[in-house]
């Protein structure tokens, strides 16, 4: 074993110590020459003549030395090192070319690597569940929505009737107040049935999951997130079994969930849940089929297929409609989808557009660097011809070219990886709503391998390109000719022109896309939301049921809180609402209009509902169109009132005045019969690009839920003030603490921040496409300039002759500018066609903007024409300053 190791060490030393190798080769050559000389001397030849004849018989000593070098072990490594050194020196002697190529490659590789990391995290990474392909969601659909929740009674039917699933779980969202060390904080909470974790295929990393005993126990059992365990519980393994004070009662920690676990809606919206509390649906007491607030998840049983399960679920929905015709919403159907479908579906259009854009950037990068290398190779043809004349074969030329390309691509890949890191951090910082799971985006080994593979592929293309055109015959003719136009330069010129046209076309496509997305973003940002965000501070207040079980206590607390805030000198207007616009979704509530009957088979009238306190609509500056708003006089013992939106009025009372009309709230919600007292402007609620739905605003003091008979005990404050945010926040916290020190004020933020988050996705698209298109425009300009400058250099003799024969310098300049414009015109034409072909991709992300917008198309064409003129201007002006005499003398 030691002898073999010794031989390997000797071989490595032989590769690394060139002087020893050369000495051995020299000594071997001298041995053969001396041996032959002695043989000739023995035959009677004089020593001097014998030495001469031995050398003649032996042939070129240097040739045999070279053969010996190439045949020995490690010669390939030595050639690689030598070629790499040669390539490095060659690139160092051309700093402008090297820097331009590396920066260009870094832009293309970095952009593609960054978007790949986002696509991988959002679309390609499996969901954090066990066998995620077997996890399905069960959804309700009816007239105007296809992703509705499930009612408690329907969930119980699932558990009883569905045989295709091994586990069926349900979940809902809320919050609990954590009281520790005198500090009250609101904690985002998920309420889950005991089977939910099993349906997701999840086991706690510490402790245990939920059991039926936890449901029936008088002591609340909770599971905590990994972040909560590490932050609040100090990563203490013995924290399992600890008691937390939640909503004024003790709750025992049963276990710690995996770090990456999130429920599907939280994956979609990037939300975090720190507490998971068990809850149960009582079979004897629950009969409600109209309140669809539960999310349902189910795991396919062993041997069951998703298609068969979907058919079973659909059939169960039809059975429900037949069996409970009066309690089930008309038109209700059930359907299934994979748990991740709703998570990734909103991201596909945006990611498709970004991937297309960076693909174009990569193509522009390749075209630009290919043009640079073609120009460089034309200048170096004589150098390669000399190498061939000295005995270099095509393989050696290929090795040299590949070494140079690998150095360029490697440097560009390293720089691109750093650029990708900065880009991904910028994307994550924007937190676009349509891109879920951004917290998992990172430059990990897989992403680095993608960038390295991309760099290597580019290096192969660029390395093979010059070698393919470097046959010995062509290079021999190059050595014999002094003309720059010889040896295939016409073909090279045609290739370079094609590359520039392709760059311009790709740049046009990107600029058109960027222009359309920017126009769309401007229109989204200018959407009339129906309220004024400026000067509004929002905060959520939730009352624990243990302390506020009576309806009167809930109503009294919020009335006292709003009166206290309104008395502050920094507060102009204040109110509260159940769901803040642009940040949460709304559910609809059906109703029956007095004096109207619903035809058989049609759905009852319905509208999205909000519960508001007096002052909310005024604080948000929602315009009043007719009648009045909710006031303090609208108490529980008064006539039930409702304020409706314009869309509601136009849809259900198109030919009469709704003010004074009455209707009955569905589902048994109090106060039952309500009278329309006012009409307000439509408010954009679910997103800036959404169409406002019919809405109604109910008085907080009058409204009570149909499922628990209580009022809304969790509201969002909306406070209008010109004071600094920090001062307003202090006033709000002090007012809450004065009424109940055990309550927590949470999710405090300006309404402008809420609106900004709603703009995050279109802003991201506009920013990235703007950056990519600017880079494409710059590269197209550089490519055009490089081609024109190179062609002008080739035509020095022709230009000199024309000037000597009387041509005016302005004619020379016009010809050069015309050449640049011709290239730009061809590229603009192709790019416009390409942009129109991408209209289907664009249509999914544009808002109130046509993919065929003529203003954008014309503007981009003018921009590229201007760039082409600017890129051609410098070579043209330089040609005008040339002296005809000096050119002819050359």
Helix/strand layout:
Blueprint: H1 2-16, H2 18-42, H3 47-58, H4 61-71, H5 75-92, H6 95-124, E1 135-142, E2 145-148, H7 152-161, E3 165-180, E4 183-192, H8 196-200, E5 206-207, H9 212-216, E6 220-224, H10 226-231, E7 243-246, E8 249-256, H11 264-269, E9 275-278, E10 295-300, H12 306-323, E11 333-338, H13 341-344, H14 347-379, H15 381-389, H16 394-430, H17 445-468, H18 472-480, H19 489-525, E12 536-542, H20 551-566, E13 573-577, E14 588-593, E15 606-612, H21 616-619, E16 624-627, E17 641-645, H22 646-652, E18 662-665, E19 673-680, E20 695-699, E21 714-720, H23 725-739, E22 745-750, H24 751-758, H25 760-794, H26 796-804, H27 809-837, H28 839-843, H29 854-880, H30 884-889
Parallel strand pairs: 4-9, 6-8, 15-20, 17-19
Antiparallel strand pairs: 1-2, 1-10, 1-11, 3-4, 3-10, 5-8, 6-9, 7-8, 12-21, 12-22, 13-21, 14-15, 14-18, 16-19, 17-20, 18-19
